């Protein structure tokens, strides 16, 4: 008798779980697959009907009511939040501000680090980076240590100037975006040749000082490619309008 009672209790709880699981199925899913849901529900209720009591039906109804209430609250809250954001923080100005900040985030490093390359401190700091990268080491053979630093600094300053003019000049944006993309593609490529992992911490994924300095150029490369792509699109649109 105790075993029979325990078995019935277990079967009743299984029935409760089935009903609660069925209640979580969305109305849309039941509409899309009415036959499947009906067969599943009829099969389970038929199989476990003797074990499902009135309490199970109450639980089932409560689950459905709770789910509908939560969905209504979520829909209302989401709509109110979207309305507030659109009212106090419209998408247009935020997008424009984001573009300006992203462009400034490329121009400032190029300009400030470009100026720094004309100092002896930066000339010395570049030695392990250039000499340790096989596809950049030739710069020292051709231009020397100071000459290579001056060349890189000049390119970076020119790129920064072109990017500053990019909002008003499509051609400047295309040229600046191309130079910036090339510059940061080269710096990102050095991570494949230089030791960028902290061996004292076990290596990957722990970056050392060199890795921490270079990893930011991935984001700068992405922004430069966006500037280049948008400038080329504007240039192409201008050319089409001119032909018309």
Structural commentary:
The structure is a single chain. By secondary structure, the chain is mainly alpha-helical. 81% of the residues lie in helices and 0% in strands. The protein contains ten helices and no strands. Helix 5 (91-116) crosses helix 10 (217-243). The N and C termini lie far apart (93 Å). Mean pLDDT is 78; it is low at 33-40 and 46-52.
Question: Could you outline the blueprint of secondary structure elements for this entry?
Answer:
Layout: H1 2-23, H2 27-32, H3 34-48, H4 54-88, H5 91-116, H6 120-131, H7 138-165, H8 170-189, H9 209-215, H10 217-243
Key traits:
244 residues; mainly alpha; 2 domains; 10 helices; 81% helix
Main sheet characteristics: none
What average pLDDT do the residues reach?
A: 78
First-to-last CA distance: 93 Å
Q: What series of H and E elements makes up the topology? A: HHHHHHHHHH
Assign the structural class, choosing from mainly alpha, mainly beta, alpha/beta, alpha+beta, or little secondary structure.
mainly alpha
Number of helices: 10
Give Rg in angstroms.
32 Å
| Uncertain regions spanning at least 5 consecutive residues | 33-40, 46-52
Shape: flat
Share of residues in strands:
under 5%
The counted number of beta strands is: 0
